[in-house]
Design a protein that fits this description.
The complex is a heterodimer. Chain A is of the alpha+beta class. Chain A is built from 15 helices and 19 strands. In chain A, strands 7, 8, 9, 11, 15, 16, 18 and 19 form an 8-stranded mixed β-sheet that branches. A 7-stranded mixed β-sheet of chain A has the order 1-2-3-4-5-13-12, with helices on both faces. In chain A, strands 6-10 form a two-stranded antiparallel sheet. In chain A, strand 12 and strand 13 form a beta hairpin. In chain A, helix 5 crosses helix 9 and helix 6 runs antiparallel to helix 8. Chain A is globular. The radius of gyration of chain B is 14 Å and the shape is globular. In chain B, a hairpin with a 2-residue loop joins strand 4 and strand 5. Chain B contains 3 helices and 8 strands; from the N terminus they run E-E-H-E-H-E-E-H-E-E-E. The chains are: A alpha+beta, B alpha+beta. Chains A and B meet through strand 4, helix 6, helix 8, helix 12 and helix 14 of A and helix 2 and strand 6 of B.
């Protein structure tokens, strides 16, 4: 992106000033190097988002932003229903509530290394992963309805998890006001065999080691110390969410003219929050959030079963579960006043600061854990929400590294076998049904996650707490 | 124009493009490009056919519906498709997707496609043929 087109506010804040037809400015929260690396399409898409009706304050762009569809990935935008604000299926994405969950284990590297391959094989064979995989759980109509209403709480009530997991999940494991009746039969059918599956693409399950502590007091509050082993799960609402995205993107495309929405591009399809279609989408999208929460909860149960067999000494507790493709109704201070706004976070993580009432008591003083997934070789990070993040970007932070090159470019450069062998030499065991998938997801195909996290820290969006390095990666 | 498909660059996702002598041919080629996101279409046996019908108010929405119908059938049937037959009559499309159940060993599927987006969505009559393209989310 050409930085001469931007106004620099400070080291990690750049503004695209408001000019017609924009209804608000765009603020990019990133270092100069990251902004320069961003695709010009990010600027174009962020300006389009800032032109949508009812936008509040600004369209915010996270340090890991890249070209998406409609909204940039790494885009945050809040809309006021009473000011004609809109909700956008493209502003949430197809993988509704895709997110990351981190489990502590009570183990250290020395516990893992002797059984590293055995553990990798057990996880790979017992967790459904990759294209065409099926879960062991089949839901009938009533069970599907209950899952879509109950989320992780439903899963725990069915025996897939512990009650104390729930307070460590956004919305305490259950997104309220979900409306299964607004979810199509096709979406439910697409999900019927996909409960407890990991998916493919950039989704993964990793066993990781805490290899650096950047903020000891907060790390301690999160139960993390140098050398600890954690499990990170990255996946979303599977086929149900994908179909809800498809259904409502299409419906919003057809309906936009009737709502008087003059969109600069079809990919911005949306509906007024206060419209029937807007409300139906919110009801369906919340059901998809519950599906994602239930899915990650079931995967957690499977992981616990596997660890019990391979490493009986392990005690898997939930550190936290974040979603990074959502639209949520939240209260924020805007220009000195509290306002209820619908915050779209597409490829962006909610990052509530210390003292936020929605955080569980054990985490309230430290701030919300913000889980940043890296790629297979480059590791992941745990951050914590800051007080200033609310005024900066509606309490939001980055979500990952973001791709540096396309899947095709990665495939031209690496083979899956080569990536797996190189990672093995570094002590990382990779298991995947698809060598081509591994090549497309090669660590070198992603931006430097450390640079993204440093920028988020310097921008004040979230504070860096701990760095994690993979030992085992199960890749879809 | 010789019927062919190709992928085009998109940062995180994949652009699928079909080129054909006719609009229907371009839609068939776009479908092959969609399969190629997942696996090599030449490795897919033609053992089962699935019928698909779509109707939309314009060509671009028709392409969107065609690709999304294929994505749906791939997901719920756990199939991959290597051959497509499309007939377009005004705003109506009738088609067949011919393929087989996905095999991890033979197809080595790289990634599942979540949905077709409106990004770079275009259906156009070019010199001597048709183009049908969009970006799909993976």
């Amino acid at each position: 992106m050409d930085t001469t087109l931007l106004t620099r506010r400070d080291e990690c804040a750049w503004e695209i000033p408001q000019r017609a037809p924009m209804r608000a400015p765009v603020i990019l929260h990133a270092s100069e190097a990251l902004v320069r690396d961003m695709d010009d399409k990010v600027r174009e898409q962020a300006i389009n988002v800032a032109s949508l009706p009812g936008i509040v304050q600004a369209c915010h762009v996270m340090p890991d932003a890249h070209w998406g569809y409609g909204f940039p990935i790494g885009g945050v935008a809040a809309f006021d229903a009473e000011a004609g604000g809109i909700v956008s299926a493209g502003g949430v994405g197809f993988d509704v509530s895709c997110g990351v969950r981190c489990l502590t284990t009570g183990l250290t590297r020395d516990d893992i290394v002797p059984v590293q391959k055995e553990l990798a094989d057990a996880l790979f064979t017992q967790i459904p992963v990759g294209v065409g995989s099926r879960g062991a759980i089949r839901l009938d109509e009533q069970q599907m309805h209950d899952m879509l209403v109950g989320g992780a709480k439903w899963a725990v009530e069915r025996g897939w998890g512990r009650v104390d997991d729930l307070e460590r999940i956004e919305e305490r494991g259950q997104m309220l006001h979900a409306k299964p009746g607004d979810v199509s039969e096709q979406a439910k059918k697409r999900q019927r065999e996909e409960m407890g599956t990991l998916g493919s693409g950039n989704h993964y399950l990793e066993v990781q080691e805490v290899n650096a502590i950047h903020d000891a007091p907060i790390a301690s509050a999160f139960g993390l110390k140098q050398g600890d082993i954690v499990v990170m799960i990255h996946c979303g609402s599977r086929g149900l969410g994908h179909q809800i995205g498809t259904d409502y993107l299409r419906a919003m495309l057809e309906a936009a003219p009737a709502y008087g929405l003059a969109l600069p591009d079809r990919e911005l399809a949306c509906a007024p929050i206060a419209s029937d279609l807007g409300q139906q989408y919110l009801g369906a999208m919340r059901a998809a959030i519950n599906c994602a929460l239930a899915n990650r909860q079931i995967l957690t149960h499977l992981v616990r079963q596997i660890f019990t067999r391979v490493l009986p000494r392990a005690e898997l507790g939930l550190l936290y579960d974040v979603s990074h493709n959502t639209c949520k109704l939240e209260m924020h201070r805007v220009d000195g006043h509290s306002r209820q706004v619908y915050v779209h976070r597409k490829g962006a993580t909610r990052a509530f600061g210390p003292g936020h009432p929605d955080l569980p008591a054990a985490l309230r003083a430290a701030g919300q854990p913000v889980l940043i997934g890296g790629s297979m070789g480059t590791g992941s990070y745990v951050l914590a929400g800051t007080r200033e993040s609310e005024s900066l970007a509606f309490s939001s932070a980055c979500h990952g590294a973001g791709r540096a090159m396309s899947r095709h470019a990665a495939l031209r450069r690496w083979s899956g076998r080569q990536v797996i062998d190189e990672l093995a030499e570094r002590g990382i065991v990779v298991r995947s049904p698809s060598p081509r998938g591994v090549a497309e997801e090669a660590p070198g195909a992603y931006k430097d996650v450390a640079e993204v996290v440093d920028a988020a820290d310097r921008a004040g969006l979230a504070r860096k707490v701990a760095a994690l390095a993979p030992l085992v990666c199960i890749k879809g | 124009m010789k019927d062919r498909w190709e992928h085009f660059e998109h940062g995180a996702d994949v652009g699928v493009r079909g080129l054909g002598a006719t609009k229907a041919g371009a839609f068939e080629q776009a479908a092959l490009a969609l399969t190629a996101v997942v696996t090599d279409p030449r490795c897919v046996a033609a053992s089962d056919a699935v019928s698909i019908a779509c109707e939309a108010s314009d060509d671009e929405l028709l392409l969107l519906d065609w690709l999304n119908a294929l994505i749906y059938e791939m997901a719920v049937r756990r199939m991959v498709f290597g051959r497509f037959e499309v007939a377009i009559d005004g705003r109506r499309l009738r088609g067949h997707a011919i393929g087989e159940p996905v095999s991890i060993e033979r197809h080595q599927p790289a990634v599942e496609v979540k949905g077709a987006t409106c990004t770079q969505l275009r259906v156009a009559c070019l010199d001597g043929g048709w183009l049908a393209q969009t970006v799909v989310d993976v």
